[in-house]
Amino acid sequence: MITGQTRTLVILADPIAHVRTPQVLNPRLEAEGVDAVLVPLEVPPEALEAALRGLAGARNFAGAVITLPHKTAVPALCDALSDRAAAAQSVNVVRRRRDGSLYGDLLDGEGFVRGFEQTGVTLCGKRVFLAGAGGAASAIAFALAGRGVAALTIANRSAAKAGALIARLSARFPDVAFTAAADPAGHDIAINGTSLGLRPGDALPFDPDRLDPGTLVAEVIMQPATTALLRAATARGLTTHPGRHMLEGQLTELLRFLTHEEDEK
Ligand code: NDP
């Protein structure tokens, strides 16, 4: 039951209707006996700073999950960032500290690779194609490089963003071969890290007909559960990995981050 002692968590997104985090996280909070509730808030980009600053003023505001389109705007609004959030310049979770300051971290990348590992896929040594260079894709790229993939090809609509991401990755992971290219041929794993597929009629993030036989096709999009990309991959006889694994892979860490005071890295 929600009482005056319940701590409030929010998820900030625009649009909000498609997010699945409240129906996944609230039952977990209840099952684990945590007196907190996660509430959806639809906040447009122009209201983001005021919304976050306003929330930080509330003493029982515990933290926020950040999603589309706010992840890359939130780092500048936090008082402190984890190393991985600073490196990717992207935040998907914010904790309010006791003094009202905001600490941002990025669990998406770790969630994505754990989601893979939970299904038995090994990433070390693989050649990976990643569409996107936004918040989710940047987090995934850093986590993949940290797992020792052999090569990572990045394709993004705004080429300059892909180039900047590759520059940051190369500085941190000199042993991984990073390339900017749009062709997904010649990879073991191909990932959609863009928001293409959320809306009916969206273009495909890359051409599935170019994929090698045996390529594993992965999504970040959770709703719809089967995107046009996953449908096209299945039609070609390829194995697919749906977006829900990325959230499932980070749930435990997300819960701990939002509801406990932790040492900050
Ligand atoms: P961002 O806004 O940070 O990035 C969006 C990305 O999509 C950019 O690479 C952008 O390219 C690309 N993009 C958007 N529209 C188009 C288009 N019309 N044509 C080509 N490329 C396009 O968003 P996030 O990274 O935060 O989120 C991306 C997706 O990941 C969302 O769908 C979100 O729901 C999902 N997600 C899923 C999670 C899970 O647990 N399963 C967790 C986190 C996110 P450009 O740079 O050129 O604008």
UniProtKB/TrEMBL annotation:
Pathway: Metabolic intermediate biosynthesis; chorismate biosynthesis; chorismate from D-erythrose 4-phosphate and phosphoenolpyruvate: step 4/7. Residues 122-172 form the Quinate/shikimate 5-dehydrogenase/glutamyl-tRNA reductase domain. Keywords: Amino-acid biosynthesis, Aromatic amino acid biosynthesis, NADP, Oxidoreductase. It catalyses: shikimate + NADP(+) = 3-dehydroshikimate + NADPH + H(+). Its EC number is 1.1.1.25. Residues 11-94 form the Shikimate dehydrogenase substrate binding N-terminal domain. InterPro entries: Aminoacid_DH-like_N_sf (IPR046346), NAD(P)-bd_dom_sf (IPR036291), Shikimate_DH-bd_N (IPR013708), Shikimate_DH_fam (IPR022893), Shikm_DH/Glu-tRNA_Rdtase (IPR006151). This is shikimate dehydrogenase (NADP(+)). It comes from Pseudodonghicola flavimaris.
